[in-house]
Each structure stands twice: as C-alpha cells, then as structure tokens.
C-alpha cells in the first residue's frame, strides 16, 4: 500500500469543493512526507494557496478540510499548525499492520500497475567503432535502472539500444582502413585497431579543418570587435542599446574562444610530425571520409562488406561491457536498421507540407526556432533526425508504444524537442515522448571527465580501475571490521574479497551516476564514490551485509526469524517501520519523472534509519523473546528492501563484506 498516494487521493476528493477540477491534483500533491518528525509523518500545505485563491482564512479552510476528510482508519486526528499546515500521523496499529503485510509480501508492498503501458526505453546508444565514453555509461546505467523499475511495476517494457552504427565515423574508419591499416594489430584486436584508425583520421581531419578555418575565424573576431567599437562610439544609453552592446561583447568572447581553440588544435598538429606528414599527404581527408560514408550508404559493395566485418567485432566488444554491468537489451536496432525507411519519411513530410527545401536541404521549420529540423541534406544524405523519425514510426507500428523514453545527454535537448514537435505535427499525438536527459560527468579539474592518460576513457579500463580501487577498501576494512557488539567477523577469503571488490567497484560507479539529480553535471571522484559512509553504494552495501551478519549470528545462536509478529515499540523502531512502509512511495516517485536519485535517497534514509534503530534497540540482547524475534524480523525486512531497491538500480549486494 502506498500511504502517500492514499492520503493524496482522499484529499483530492475533498479539494474538489474548493478548486477547479483541473487544479485538484496539483493541490492534492501538496500532501507530502513531513520534513520534521515532530510534525507527524505527513503534512499537507494546500490550505494556504487554496485559501488565497478562495479569499478565505487559511486556518479556517484547513479546519473545514479536516472536517470533511475521513482518515480515521489511517491516521490520528489531524492537527493544524502555524498559518494552516495540516499535520498527519499514521496510527501506530495501522503502521504495524502495514509493515507486517510488507513483510509477508514478496513484492515488499509494491503493487503492480492496474493498466500496464507499452514503454520503449531507448538507452546506451553508443556510436560503434568509436571508443564508448562515460556519457554512454551514464545513459546505460540510468536507462537500465528505469527499465528494471518499470518492469517491476508490471509495464510492458522494450529496452532498445539505438546504436550509432551508420554514422560518419564509418567513413573515417573506412578511409583509415584503406590507407593506414596495421594488419597485424587488426588481426590481434580489430576493435582497438578500428578505434586507432578513427582517432587518427579524426585528428588529421580536425587539424586540417582548424587550419583552414583560421583566416575566417580571425576575420569573424575582427568584425565582432569592430561592431563593439562602433556601438561603444555611439554611446547610446537606452536599455535596448545596452542589451545589444552586451550581446555584441558576448560575440567577441565566443569568437575569441573559437579562434583560440582552433589555434590550439593547429599548434598540436604542427608539433606532431606524424600528423603533419599525414595532413600533407591526405589534404582532402575530410571530404574523402565523407565520400566513403556516402558510398557505404549508397550500397557500395566493398564498403558494405567491410562494414559487415567491422560491426560484429564492435558489438562483441560492447557486449563484454554490458555483461559486466549486468545490462541487457530486448532489441539492438541501430541506425542502420532504419536506412530503408528514410526516403519514405521525407516523402511523407513533404506530402503533408511539413518539409520544404531550403538551400538544397529538406527542412522542417518549427515555430519559435531559429534553426530548422533538417531531414535531408543538400547532398541527399539523410540525418540523425530522419533516422529518429523513422524509429518512432517503427516503434509505434511494431510495439504499439504508449511511451518512448530517450535516456540521452542533455546536449541533445534541441534535437529531441524538434523531434517530438515534428512527430506531433505528423499527427502522432497519443504517444508520450520523453527526453530523460542527463548532465555531463566532469573530472576533478572541472572539465569533462578524462583519464589520467588524457584521452576519453575506454570504459573497460574504467571498470577495472573501479574494482582495483574498491579492492583497497575491502582489504583495509578487514582490519577495522566492526563486531556489531557480537562475534568479530571472520576474515574474508580471497574469492569473497574479489567478489566484494567487484560489487563495490561497479556498484560505486553506477551509484555515482544514479544518485545525482540526473540533470546536473557531477564531478567524478573515486574517494567520494567509494566512501564507506555517506550517500554511496558502499554504505548501502555494508548496511545490507550488516543485516545479513546479524541474521547469521542469530541463527547460529538458535534464534530464527520465524513467523513472529512485528511490533513497533520504541521511536527508532517506529521510524524504521514507517520507512519500510514507504518503499512503494519511493518507487512511484522514481518513475513519476524517471529520477533514480529519488530511489537512492530513499535507500540512504532507510539505511540511516536502520543504523539508528540498531543503535537504540537491542536485538540479540533483548530479554523479551517476542520482541527479540520481532526486531530480528525488522532487520531481515530492512535488508530485503535494501537488496530489492539496489537490484532495481542494478547494484549488486554481498552477503558478507
Ligand atoms: N548515438 C547517439 C549518441 O551517441 C545516441 C542515440 C540516442 N537515441 C536516439 N534514438 N537518438 O549521441
């Protein structure tokens, strides 16, 4: 049972007397868990804004609302505090009954949804044959957590890995393969060699492009400076002129940065004899690589053959990472899969008058947007946009999708806004399209995260490093092991240590991606990620292992959990019980706006509640046998919820640590 949802729905029924039907839900949502336990378990803050709307006194309104609410089967009589807060406290006997029910429920109180939806979760989506980076890892971790949680709730989920397997990187790789291949290296490790070729072609091409752009960038900067000087000379004091001047100054800053970064690239290339030499011999490399892509798309037999050779190797390498992360996909339908449908998409857009030609390209112009959504370039090439439109058509047709979630970097916000708008214009208004966006992972230097070696992290090595770092903690911890007032824990054997290091290392990486508000950037730090105390996976994993240790020792002492009745006597016990009862609320909050951090913060509070309970309430030392059995049960139940919650997040637990 979801207590919060029940309270909100009872409030909603009463609130219809005080506001319009479309606003009821919004005011009912103002019933929330209390911030401070002194004010009860839940608090409703709706009386103040409602009273304002209705021109009433808020305390009077609160009194009226309470008078109409029937909560006696759930709560103690409601109390009004301050300007009109309504404080609610769940009846102890009711709470105890709920917790006992959760205990007997394999789903731990979380009901499946009454009307399952068909939901596509589009996540991971790395660009194959390029090294996968931490951004794709974040998508993978967040996407998999959402995927598992929706399934747990009973939705019909299709997880789909929209691989970038048809993009311009293949042109670079094809060009590299034909010109710079190291055959021996390719035989040894095809994927590494392809990644090297990609980087090589990309660097040379970037260098040449930067070099060619220097005069233009310098001219842009000068012209921006001239315009600032002209505006300053005019010395207009009105607001509009000041704003225009400010904008011009920003243009100077941007132009300065652009020029600087191009100069930096050129300097780096100039300093590297290999790059300089290749640039000289392959001066048209960018165009040549584009031509290779075009040939591939046009069906050129050699390029298709090579593509068919590259792809399986790349997918095998990706699968190794997915296996380690415990992630699986129902579908792996990459961009190449949609190639046959692209022409049709553009035709349809033209027929419906949505796409029109502009500078030779086919564009969808959307209201209030400076740039159009380009669905076919002047050279005839289709785009990322065309592919995503074709993908939506397919998902609607094939899976009758009610919702499609795109777990993708927030730098693609514009793309998804335009994609969704175009889809609506095409008449597909029923499907719920969501960009579940996330921010950038930053290094401790404040720049996007890179390894010490300086290049964007190869994910395999990142995972290995996490496990090595975690192993240090596991080894250190053996000495400092707490004894939980009882037997000291036995030393862990080698196999257990390795397993714990793996769980802590990978769990730590995942937790870091999950527990930050997904929309914010965060700083990647091993020490924070693997800390034993604080809001980390390690802390939760220890809390779980601690519950298991207590139960093992109890069993060894002949006290099994059995079918004792759970009783909540002391405040710390009740507090933990309330938390246990709130597991369904945490799950509902997480899927409401696809925010895994709401589940991690719930688990963190639960682990803290457990710790306070264990400090305040004796378990094995409790003389009353019934109470002892009840407390053991509470220990067991807490452990099961932590395990279930972490499992939904994709974080493994260990029985001993
Ligand atoms: N391959 C894309 C990238 O790396 C992500 C794909 C996301 N999914 C989608 N349907 N566009 O940026």
TrEMBL record:
Transmembrane segments: none annotated. Residues 474-485 have a biased composition (Basic and acidic residues). Residues 1-90 form the Arginyl tRNA synthetase N-terminal domain. SMART domains: Arg_tRNA_synt_N, DALR_1. It is found in: Cytoplasm. Residues 540-657 form the DALR anticodon binding domain. It holds the Pfam family Arg_tRNA_synt_N. Its EC number is 6.1.1.19. Residues 474-493 are annotated as: Disordered. A motif ('HIGH' region) lies at residues 126-136. Residues 214-265 form a coiled coil. It catalyses: tRNA(Arg) + L-arginine + ATP = L-arginyl-tRNA(Arg) + AMP + diphosphate. It comes from the Bacteria. SUPFAM superfamilies: Anticodon-binding domain of a subclass of class I aminoacyl-tRNA synthetases, Arginyl-tRNA synthetase (ArgRS), N-terminal 'additional' domain, Nucleotidylyl transferase. Keywords: Aminoacyl-tRNA synthetase, ATP-binding, Coiled coil, Cytoplasm, Ligase, Nucleotide-binding, Protein biosynthesis. Its main location: cytoplasm. The keyword Coiled coil applies. It is an enzyme of class 6 (ligase). The keyword Coiled coil applies. InterPro entries: aa-tRNA-synth_I_CS, Arg-tRNA-ligase, Arg-tRNA-synth_N, Arg-tRNA-synth_N_sf, ArgRS_core, DALR_anticod-bd, Rossmann-like_a/b/a_fold, tRNAsynth_Ia_anticodon-bd. One of its GO terms (cellular component) is cytoplasm. Monomer. Belongs to the class-I aminoacyl-tRNA synthetase family. This is Arginine--tRNA ligase. The gene is argS.
């Amino acid at each position: 049972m979801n207590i919060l949802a029940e309270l909100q729905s009872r409030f909603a029924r009463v609130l219809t007397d005080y506001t319009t039907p479309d606003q009821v839900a919004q005011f009912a949502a103002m019933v929330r868990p209390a911030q401070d336990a002194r004010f009860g378990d839940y608090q409703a803050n709706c009386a103040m804004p409602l009273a304002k709307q209705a021109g009433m006194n808020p305390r009077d309104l609160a009194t009226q609302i309470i008078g109409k609410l029937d909560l006696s089967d759930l709560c103690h009589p409601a109390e009004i505090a301050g300007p009109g807060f309504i404080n609610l406290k769940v009846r102890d006997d009711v709470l105890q009954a709920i917790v006992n029910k959760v205990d007997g429920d394999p789903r731990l109180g979380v009901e499946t949804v009454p009307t399952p939806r068909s939901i596509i979760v589009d996540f991971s989506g790395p660009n194959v044959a390029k090294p996968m980076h931490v951004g794709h890892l974040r998508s993978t971790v967040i996407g998999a957590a959402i995927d598992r949680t929706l399934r747990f709730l009973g939705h019909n989920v299709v997880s789909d890995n929209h691989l970038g397997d048809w993009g311009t990187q293949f042109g670079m790789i094809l060009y590299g393969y034909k010109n710079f291949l190291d055959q021996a290296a390719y035989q040894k490790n095809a994927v590494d060699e392809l990644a090297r070729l990609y980087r090589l072609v990309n660097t040379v091409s970037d260098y040449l492009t930067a070099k060619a752009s220097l005069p233009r960038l310098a001219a842009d900067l000068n012209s921006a400076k001239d315009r600032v000087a002209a505006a300053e000379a005019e010395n207009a004091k009105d607001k509009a002129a000041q704003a225009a001047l400010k904008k011009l100054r920003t243009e100077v800053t941007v132009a300065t940065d652009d020029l600087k970064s191009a100069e930096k690239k050129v300097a780096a290339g100039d300093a590297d004899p290999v790059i300089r030499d290749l640039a000289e011999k392959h001066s048209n490399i960018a165009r040549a690589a584009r031509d290779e892509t075009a040939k591939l798309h046009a069906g050129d037999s050699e390029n298709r053959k090579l593509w068919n050779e590259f792809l399986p190797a790349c997918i095998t390498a990706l699968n190794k990472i997915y296996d380690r992360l415990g992630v699986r996909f129902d579908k792996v339908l990459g961009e190449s899969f949609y190639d046959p449908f692209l022409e049709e998409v553009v035709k349809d857009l033209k027929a419906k008058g949505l796409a029109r030609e502009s500078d030779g390209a086919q564009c969808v112009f959307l209201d209030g947007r400076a740039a159009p959504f380009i669905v076919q370039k002047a050279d005839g090439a289709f785009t990322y946009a065309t592919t995503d439109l074709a993908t939506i058509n397919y998902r609607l047709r094939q899976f009758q999708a009610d919702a499609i979630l795109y777990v993708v970097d927030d730098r693609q916000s514009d793309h998804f806004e335009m994609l969704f708008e175009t889809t609506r214009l095409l008449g597909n208004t029923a499907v719920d399209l969501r960009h579940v966006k996330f921010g950038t992972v930053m290094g401790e230097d404040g720049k996007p995260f890179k390894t010490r070696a300086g290049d964007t992290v190869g994910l395999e090595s990142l995972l290995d490093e996490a496990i090595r770092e975690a192993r240090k903690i596991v080894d250190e911890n053996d000495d400092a092991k707490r004894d939980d007032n009882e037997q000291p824990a036995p030393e862990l054997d080698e196999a257990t240590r390795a397993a714990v290091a793996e769980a802590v290392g990978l769990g730590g990486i995942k937790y870091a991606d999950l527990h930050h508000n997904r929309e914010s950037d965060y700083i990647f730090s091993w020490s924070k990620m693997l800390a034993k105390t604080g809001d980390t996976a390690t802390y939760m994993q220890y809390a779980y292992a601690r519950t298991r240790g207590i139960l093992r020792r109890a069993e060894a002492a002949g006290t099994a959990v059995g079918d004792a009745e759970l009783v909540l006597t002391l405040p710390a016990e009740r507090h933990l019980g309330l938390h246990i009862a709130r597991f369904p609320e945490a799950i509902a909050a997480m899927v409401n706006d696809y925010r895994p951090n709401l589940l991690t913060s719930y688990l963190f509070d639960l682990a803290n509640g457990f710790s306070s309970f264990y400090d305040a309430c004796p378990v094995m030392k409790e003389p009353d046998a019934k109470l002892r059995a009840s407390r053991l049960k509470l220990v067991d139940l807490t452990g099961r919820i932590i395990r279930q919650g972490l499992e939904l997040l994709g974080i493994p637990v260990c029985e001993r640590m």
